[in-house]
Structures
1.
Amino acid sequence: MNSTIKNKAPRLLATGAIVGSLLTVPVTAAATPTQACVEDEGVTVVVDFTDLGGEVEIGCAPGEPENGREALEGAGFSPEDSMPGMVCTINNLPDPCPEEFEGDFWSYWSGEDDDWAMYDVGLDEATPEPGDVEGWRYSDGSEGPTITPTEALAEAGDGDGDEVTEGEDTDGDSATVDSEDDSSAALPTWAFVVVAVAIIGGVVALVVRRRQQ
């Protein structure tokens, strides 16, 4: 009987590894910019990459972000600071982060209907509220993002990736804003738990059966 159980040890170890891998599979995807918030479900964040050769991207930070940084990150963007409170790159742009100030920077804006007003505080001190629109643009700071807050909010809730909004950049060229559908959601946690329990139950039943033999 002991030899039988010892012979089953490799199988048990292999099964345990499988169970472990199932339980460690990420069950939620990282937030990515997709569209504006619907009504007051969170803070809409607009990041204008047009001066860096990119596009205008819109994301929703759900709930009540504690500050502007939490709103930016909650909307799916990744800021990095050159010094505390001073954003140097968003989503690794510009690349590399300038070592010296050359006139352009990530300016931080608050949306007011069809206009942008530059914040007079940093992102760690700002306190956006649900329903607000935040804006970021890498430029000389003379103008906000190339789409208005109203245009950004028009992207809310379409969810099919077909909605397109165009705005004018400083050179008069249009910048396209695409709302991408993130329909590939990960399996819920309970599904992995059910599979793991079923596997463990099968292993226990096998061991008990072998002992009884």
2.
Amino acid sequence: MKIFLSACAAVFILTSYACHDEIKFSLIGCCETQITGGPVGNSKIFIPNVFTPNGDGVNEKFYVFGDSIRRIINFEIRDKLNKTVYKVVDINYPGFENAWDGKVNGVVEKGLYSIFVTIETNDGIIGSFEGKICNFPCNLEGEDDKISPENCHFPSEWGCWLYDDGCLILENPDCFE
């Protein structure tokens, strides 16, 4: 019986550490990935690489930003196992009510996700983008994870990016190292 209990305790401890390491691993590369977007016809598309759905009212939702977009043909988010966790198709722009709130099965799930977007511009040109988005709901109760702010680009930076003024908007310095 002692051997069985010792084995159970070892499995519990290893699982606990493995799960914690898995969470840490899923955040590696959060802001090291480039923003997704660029020119499509006469439009400029901006897809941030991090958002923070933690209820503070800043950078809460993830969406495609751009000028001269007619519609979003496809907007899909996949987890690290390539499972689709969010998808909308054929919506008029801006359609912010269709932004992803960072929830998977009703719960905000921190991690690095793959994004797939296809848009149509006002001049009828179709453009597709693939990239990564970091769902980082910093400062949740009991959380102490942080990420480095270098190269983090938030939804609130859309205007900065559009007008090339280079501003970087960090919402809460405590979220970042």
3.
Amino acid sequence: MEAQGKDMLGTILARRTTRKFLAQAVPDTTIVQLMQMAMFAPTRLGRRPWQFIVMRKPEVKAQVASALHLEADYAAAPIYVAVLGDKEATDAWDLDGGAAAENLLVAATAMGLGSAWIASPVNPLWDKLDALLTQLTHKPPAMGLVGILAVGYPAEAEPAHTEGEVYEQHRVHFETWGATRGK
């Protein structure tokens, strides 16, 4: 395997959910690079429906954290990123936004940052959160909320995943349901 491929696989293994963040600000140049990496995500039909709102103001983050009932450690992240998708651009706005969010999470790891996906549509508070973001950030109604990510410098180093830690063969089916490699 090429060195670049090994580096990428290592970054994926190293990506962990950060639960405690340092109070250290994330520089604008780093934020811009994260957004660039997010926008390299694959997108259905090249529609690129994503938009991002970077939230750094303590009072805005406090309202979002309160709405989500976040633990103090998550609430202390220096930035929150709302990942949005243009509902009018494509039916796949949420999938494309999810791909962009994953790119951002992996890029954060590669850049020495920690991250956590702190809100997603399965949260029962989702509609209230969406309304709050519209109020706080002036998010247009056509922009659907994909998720909110917390990003910052991790307060604690987490060990990388091991290759066998989360792989479960019974979740992989070859050709037909239940057919695993070796059968």
